[in-house]
Amino acid sequence: MRHRLPELGSLLAVAVLLSVLPFTLSDYNISLVAQVGIFFVAVLGLNILTGYTGQISIGHGAFMAIGGYTTAVMSRDHDTNLVVTMLMAFAICFVVGLLVGLPALRLSGVYLALATFALAVSVPQLPLKWSKFLGGSGGVQSHRTVTHLWLYGAAWIASAILFALAWLILRGRIGRAFRAARDSEIAAVASGIELPIYKTLAFGISAAYAGVAGALFVMGTNGFAQPSEFGVFLSLQLLVGAAVAGLGSLWGILAGAAFVGLLPTVSGSVPVIGSAHGRNVVFGAAVILVMLLLPEGFAGLLTRLRRLARA
Amino acid sequence: MPVNRRKLGALLCALLATAAVASTAAASHRSTPGVTSKKVVIGGTFPLSEGPATGGASLYKTIPFAEQAYYAYVNAHGGVHHRKIDDIVLDDQYTPSETVQQTTKLVEQDHVFADVGSLGTAPNLSTWGYLNKHKVPQVLLATGDAYWGNCVHHACQGSTKPWTLGWQPDYPGEAKLYAKYILAHNKNAKIGVLYQNDAYGKNYLAGLKTGLGSHKNLIVDAEAYNAGDSAQVVGAHVFALKTHGADTFVIFATPGASIAALATLPAIGWSPVTLLNNVSANRIFMGLAAKNGAKLDGVISTTYVESQTVQANLPGMKLAKKIIHTYAPNLDQQFAAGDQNLVYGLAVGWTFVDALKHAGKNPTRKSLMHALRNMNEKNNPFIYPGMVVKTSKKRTFPMEQLIFIKWSGGNSGDWHHFGKVLNSGH
User: Fold this and answer.
1) Is A185 or B137 the better-scoring residue by pLDDT?
2) Is-contact A144 A74, C-beta < 8 A?
3) B180 and B153 in contact (C-beta within 8 Å)?
4) Cys staple from A214: which of A1, A68, B26, B270, with CB 3.0 to 4.6 Å?
């Protein structure tokens, strides 16, 4: 247990910081940090899949869409408590994730990435198909809206719970199976690991996390779920977040979430001469820069720093 | 170990104390946000760049620049009650989640007095509840949906929305006029409608049906496209209308799709009577359609602002030209080419300044709303002569008049007004 102390210490520090922050920040900045919390959940989920089992997904925006629409529709039609809708988003996306994970068993690497890409493209089309139920391109407006502080609390409490859950899952038997599947499928099978079960399970858990993030995301847009919000770009953002955080480690996720949660907003005020697309340029440049300097993401940086400290 | 715990406790106490001091400091100066003795800070959100699925929304981006030019002109002439107007324009890419973020920033970071002129139905819907809850004026919106006027006294989505006000004539009212036009000219018309598959397009379609009344069955086909659909998809819908035997083509679209639709007509050898909604009838957009192969002569639409190209001699248009030239010279060419959104922006700026003048020497958000709800503008120099911008307790749509226009003069031609100023109201 002794070697875990620095990790526990930093966790505690982050927790204390996050619980004190709302008292010092302006309402607007609270909403920004809440945004980071939402991406924390999503990036965490994607990291379980991509980082720990080595299955690349460019389709997690689709699971966020499903989670988000779950919240919006339940709130619109039944005025359901928003926390309950988050749990439902978790459950529904878990099931959908398992179902998506089944065909994914036959695919790997680039082919799996392409299949999930198809998911990212097609799911936002569903509201257009069933526009009575899902509001068409105009979107669904949920019945309740929340304050920034409420969203902040919900996002970070969800983050804490899901982080603890991820840690528990990954440190034990399941986590070992995940990593084994990632490192060598043949070796994993040879050691008696049922690959199909663990690979679909990873998909389910990961999708469920994205669902919760989607539910929070919709609460963050004043309860407005709209198909164009959940396009391919969102999925790419999540993947960027996971890469910046560092795949296969839980310790850089905060940095990855802050990167994708804050950068588009912050860089919106950076003027790039002669272009209305300054924001996208800055975002792209930052991604390249971070990947050049930190090929293993922030988690890699932390490991390096620790090695330096020990040496 | 106990020492550490005590240290941690002390640290926490210190942090909490700082927080408490910070929050009381923030609460101590509570005057009207955005208003100082020298300035009134307002803001708005617009699609300055293209989002992932916005289909040409950034074609509207000249609107906020014209508004800023008008405020610069007013500021140079002494401002309003000696205050200068500072207009913060933020890019939301026509995407609701961005609108929410940018609007939150305007309200809570920049402390704007009011959200003025923000563009788009879905973007404004996404901040509708928030702004009303915080009693921030959300006014003179660049969208003609009926929500903005219908929910002042009646609850929509759970509450009334007294802090929201539109400006331009509402879409259903405009569509009703097209229905009347069709009935007056061809009682046996076979109408084919192309509409955007969202609240915007459906509002228009509903208005057309109401206008047709018992002649609703004249609509032989209504084709819905989705915002962001490619030109090919839009073209396929247009072709479907032709195959249904329509001889009158009604377009309720945003610029990207309307340009594609107009360009499709000659390509499929169809030359129906064409009616185009006002939002897509900007001369600039027509030019783009012509470049893509459209034949523009005879297309019919409506307008409510003056035209800088065919009414260049009106005092309003001379003033418009001067303001753009002085305060936004990089838009001179755009103005000369007939970008009606520039005139639109100037007209909205005029209305805001007018309301701000009437909101008193020390305006509050409440007094601004009061002024906006009791407008009677007969002399807005940028809107079509004879039209009024008027509100009252009962009248919640500021503009309810339109005039028909028809394109002539070939592809380098222009819109020409015909007929009288018509009432598009309820």
Assistant:
1) B137
2) no
3) no
4) A68
Taking only residues 140 to 179 of chain A, the set having a beta carbon closer than 8 angstroms to any beta carbon of chain B reads 141, 143, 145, 148
Tell me the two tokens of residue B273: 């009577």
Least confident of A7-11, A110-114, A234-238, A272-276: A272-276
Pairing relationship of beta strands B401-408 and B414-423 according to DSSP bridges: antiparallel
Contact status of A77 with chain B (Cβ, < 8 Å): no
Residue B365 · residue B135 · CB < 8 Å: yes
**What is residue B24's predicted lDDT score, i.e. its pLDDT?**
41
CA B2, B7, B8, B12 torsion-angle sign: positive
Q: What is the mean pLDDT of each run of 10 residues along chain B (426 residues)?
A: 46 45 43 92 90 68 95 96 94 86 90 95 88 94 90 85 95 95 94 90 93 94 88 95 96 92 95 95 93 94 96 95 95 94 96 96 95 94 94 93 95 93 85
d(CA A145, CA B148): 19
| Reported pTM | 0.81
Taking CA–CA distances from A233, the nearest residue in chain B reads B52
Q: Please name the CATH architecture into which domain B171-303+402-423 falls.
A: 3-Layer(aba) Sandwich (3.40)
What is the widest separation between alpha-carbon atoms in chain B?
92
Which tokens in the block code for residue A47?
Answer: 């990291």
DSSP letter (8 states) at residue B140: S
Residue A249: pLDDT band (50, 70, 90) is: confident
Q: Please list every residue in chain A whose beta carbon sits closer than 8 Å to the beta carbon of residue B49.
A: 276-277, 279-280
Residues of chain B with CATH 3.40.50.2300: 33-169+305-395, 171-303+402-423
Cβ separation of B122 and A139 shorter than 8 Å? yes
Contact (CB<8Å) A148/B104: yes
**Per CATH, domain B33-169+305-395 is 3.40.50.2300:** yes
- Cβ atoms < 10 Å from Cβ of B342: 30
- Cβ contact A229–B197 (<8 Å): no
Is A303 part of the contact surface with chain B (CB cutoff 8 Å)? no
Identify the band that residue A304 occupies on the pLDDT scale cut at 50, 70 and 90: confident
Of B125, B199, B228, the CB nearest to A224: B125
B299 and B406 in contact (C-beta within 8 Å)? yes
How high is the pLDDT of residue B15?
Answer: 45
d(CA B49, CA B326): 25
Output the average pLDDT for chain A.
Answer: 88
* A145:B130 CB<8 A: yes
When scoring B12, B58, B97, B143 by the number of chain A Cβ atoms within 10 A, the one with the most, hence best to mutate, is: B97
Query: Bigger pLDDT: A87 or A272?
Result: A87
Cβ–Cβ < 8 Å for B198, B125: no
How far apart are alpha carbons B95 and B23 in whole angstroms?
32
Best residue of A5, A17, A28 to probe chain B, by most B CBs closer than 10 Å? A28
Q: Which residues lie across from B275 on neighbouring strands?
A: B250, B300
CB proximity list for B129: less than 8 A, separation 6 or greater: A145, A222, A223, B157, B159, B161
